[in-house]
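Subject line: Sequence and fold of a protein, written as structure tokens
Enclosed: The protein record, placed directly beneath this head.
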Amino acid sequence: QGLDNPISLQLPQFQMASMCAQRGKMGADSIPFTSLDQLLKAAEAVDLGNMSLAQAILARLNQRLSPQGQPLQRAAFYFKEALAKHVMGTGTPIPTHNDTSPVDVLNKIIAFKSFCEFSPLPQFAHFTSNQAILEAVEKEDSIHLIDFDLNFGGQWASFLQEIALRPGGPPKLRITTVASQSMELQLTQDMLYEFAKDLNISLEIRVISDRWLECLTAQMFQINEGEAIVVNFTFTLNNLLAQFSSNLNLTNFLQLVKSLSPKVLTVVDMESPCQGSSFFQQFLDSLQFYAFLFDSLESTSLSKENVLRIENFVFAPRIDNIMAARTRQNEKHPQWQSLLSGAGFSPLCISLVAETQAECLVQNRSYKVVKNEGTILLCWHGRALVSASAWSC
């Protein structure tokens, strides 16, 4: 990749000044040298606890960065917006959707639908995770899915289609999610109920209306005797882990999950290495990751308008949550793989069926499916974007 490609920059390999110096040209509408330099200086100021300096720098950047242009420029804009919110104390560490307008919900639905239809990332996530679940509950008559982020239910619509084909009839299905009541959640529930009805599947959806994960208890999940428990983290585990105020509370949460005795725990997440390092390094890592991610969206048949909509309504909230968590974190959490192992979970081998299925989804040569010690990765230009793994107690 040449210097005119913004994604050629391996951000974490450089200190701030040398990184900017070696960035190279990015096209006529690329991010100005001084803007990227200033954004990184704002992140450095946050790292050093100098919030007044960070605020002054970010204020100067308001007219200099735009959600248009090259992938790095667009990523930098959203990181600037998120950093400004949380430095100035207007951010929230846990996302809430109760005040989302109907127009925003509609735009998010359109964005998420486009993302699922045209990008291999959600397809890889859903198919790989569902395959591991199907293999684990192959002979079960009653399944209880515990999902910590239903999103718009796309993964479970696909799962419903699969179990509807089971010889002898589909099993009973319960879904429990931890979420705030919202228009988005209600639409998702209605869609899944209607879909299950069309497939003659018995479905029950429960919502634990408590987003503060540190307050959860096993009794809240109302586990029934004889049902197979499945715990699913799709595009949510890294974000969840960052919300805990201490490693002790985080350990207690994972022990709670283990106490539910799931037949399988599936994890699919963005491979953004945000834990266990300084805020400044986390900022660099995350900025690089989203620049790669935004670049990958341009390789699809999505229109420019839809790419920008996906970035604004699907990924900007995730960036906002990253900055919210990082700016308030007092302790550094270990990587989630170490945390799961420490809690008593063991990684399962990804089946050949799941691996073959993942490779079939990838049509662009710049994508590559890589298997690494029980984890399957979807990479873009050699950079891991999504990882999928399955775990047992």
In short: The radius of gyration is 21 Å. Strands lie at 142-147, 172-178, 203-208, 228-234, 264-270, 346-348, 367-372, 375-380, 383-392.
